[in-house]
């Protein structure tokens, strides 16, 4: 178990810090924020893929850091900042697209890449020849994490979010599965977007640190995580109060 704390260095690098129960949410550049954090048990994250995503019909917006050269630099610098935060014998998960083969080449410099999870969606994307219906995640080990009670498949069939607020929003069910796979108690997502990893953490009673550079998405993440935390509290059994014996 790791301690989440707010150092002076963190306060100086963050534009905003919001604590909601077991979640610490930080508005700012994760490359500047991560060096100020303490240890975490696992990283579950969905960085910009480097594909210059232009959402169709302008339903959602393009994301920061998504240019191909930009993203390569961002992933490298992010990994350099992530590694000092990790303990030995832990597992982690990084989302990516099938064409970004460089992400695996980069990750093997830091981790043992154990498997490629395929997220199979219920609907197709756009395209003239083939239409994309899946995304990848690299499941990575640092050292030898404990073997889970039962292994998971590497094909996850989970429906897409129907009306996403964020152009890359992942379904909570998908991240729930990722969290169960990596284990650990305190989870870091340095590219939190609309806060899906945080919502899934609250549902599972994990601690969460999320960083987002865009204020608009940061505010959405705060709202979603606050709501998830309240719901979790609602379904928690009430604390037993011992009656006075006198
Ligand atoms: C692929 S999206 C994550 C979407 C998220 N999984 C969700 O469900 O909403 C990546 C996010 O990283 C953010 N980002 C890009 N560069 C960043 C940086 N240097 N520090 C923090 N966040 C950054 C983008 O603004 C974007 O919201």
Characterize the structure shown:
The chain has 246 residues and is an alpha/beta fold. The chain has a domain at 44-184: Rossmann fold (3-Layer(aba) Sandwich). The chain has helices at residues 8-13, 30-33, 68-82, 101-107, 172-182, 196-204, 215-235; strands spanning 16-20, 23-27, 42-45, 90-96, 112-120, 134-142, 155-157, 186-189, 207-212. It has a nine-stranded mixed sheet, sandwiched between helices. β8 (186-189), α6 (196-204) and β9 form a beta-alpha-beta unit. The longest helix is centred in the last third of the chain and has 21 residues, at 215-235. The model has no long low-confidence stretch (mean pLDDT 92). The structure holds S-adenosylmethionine. The site of S-adenosylmethionine (SAM) has 23 residues, from α2 and β9.
Please write out the topology:
Blueprint: H1 8-13, E1 16-20, E2 23-27, H2 30-33, E3 42-45, H3 68-82, E4 90-96, H4 101-107, E5 112-120, E6 134-142, E7 155-157, H5 172-182, E8 186-189, H6 196-204, E9 207-212, H7 215-235
Helix pairs in contact: 3-4, 5-6, 6-7
Bound molecules: S-adenosylmethionine.
S-adenosylmethionine binds at residues 29-31, 46-48, 63-65, 166, 168-170, 190-191, 193-194, 196, 211-214, 217.
Name given to the CATH homologous superfamily of the domain at 44-184:
Vaccinia Virus protein VP39
Biggest sheet overview = 9 strands, mixed
CATH-defined fold name of the domain at 44-184: Rossmann fold
Discrete helix count: 7
Annotated CATH architecture of the domain at 44-184: 3-Layer(aba) Sandwich
